[in-house]
Amino acid sequence: MFHKFSLKCKEKFKKENLHHVAIIMDGNRRWAKKKGIMCFLGHKEGFKALKKAVKFAIMNNIEILTLYAFSSENRNRPVLEVNALMELFLFALNNEINNLQRYNIQLKIIGDITYFNNNLQKKIIQVEKITLKNSGLILNIAANYGGRWDIIQSVKKIIEKVQKGILKVEQIKESTLSKHLSTSHLSPVDLVIRTGGEKRISNFLLWQIAYSEFYFTDVLWPDFNQYIFQNAIDFFISRERRFGGSKK
Q1: Is 228 annotated as a binding residue?
Q2: Confidence band (pLDDT; 50, 70, 90) for 247?
Q3: 74 among known catalytic residues
Q4: What is the pLDDT at residue 17?
């Protein structure tokens, strides 16, 4: 049944030009609170939901999946929680490398990784290098990421090129800024999904989602599954994308 379902999805995705899905994975702590358990256990369950989302993307021919795992603002959370998240991040990198290779996934961490300790930074660089030539799903994990940070660091790179005479001010266009973002290797985001019931962007991919479709669900991230993902896809397919223009 799931095999037939995935084939059906592949036809739809190809027809509707759905290439890049981004997800704001919200609700781990609230899920844990409802269960009366430690918030870290909510994050562990959230990691299981992440794996389900990746599996769905692979089975249904989605080319790029970008997941908002840890925002720059999340650093303001309690120290114990942040440390636990970093340990979970390192655990995932150590234990999922075989699956990344098995399923031909290219992993990319977008965000300011200098915030992380040396062990985590080294592991990120190592896994990115190992999976660099994989030609299947491009999986981006936004960690210590902020949309404003992304735009600022892009502007700084452009200014540096102008100062060195590599680039002229009059040559700067929208595409110039896009090429210097952490997502310069990606196509624009087609669909943004946010779980947890909130209806805001939370400083995620501010430049890249200018013409994305948005799907909000009250489902908390640990309860996210292929059926909810499919609901988001059905919503995307129902939309008429005009990109600021008018219907022909």
Answers
A1: no
A2: low
A3: yes
A4: 82
- Exactly one of 26, 140, 144, 150 is catalytic; name it: 26
Q: Which two tokens stand for residue 68?
A: 């908002």
CATH of the domain at 18: 3.40.1180.10
What percent of the chain is predicted at pLDDT more than 90? 83
Beta-bridge partner residues of 110 = 142
Whole-number Å distance between alpha carbons of 178 and 37: 42
Q: At what angle do helices 39-59 and 79-102 cross, to 10 degrees?
A: 20
CA 45, CA 198: separation in Å to the nearest integer? 20
Domain that holds residue 66: 14-148+189-195+205-238
Q: What is the pLDDT of residues 51-94, one digit of tens each?
A: 999 999 999 999 999 999 999 888 888 898 899 999 999 999 99
Asked whether residue 75 is domain-assigned, the answer is yes
**181 found inside a domain:** no
**Cβ atoms 203, 147 nearer than 8 A:** yes
What's the structural domain count of the chain? 1
| Phi and psi at residue 158, to the nearest 5° | -65, -45
What's 188's DSSP letter? P
**CB neighbourhood size of 191 (10 A):** 23
pLDDT bracket for residue 245 (50, 70, 90): low
Task: Confirm whether residue 194 is marked as ligand binding.
Answer: yes
201 is in an annotated binding site: yes
119 noted as active-site residue: no
Question: 192, 210 in Cβ contact below 8 A?
Answer: no
CA distance 28 to 40: 8
Catalytic residue, chosen from 17, 60, 74, 104, is: 74
**Helix axis angle, 39-59 relative to 2-16, nearest 10°?**
70
Examine residue 214 and state whether it is found in any structural domain, yes or no.
yes
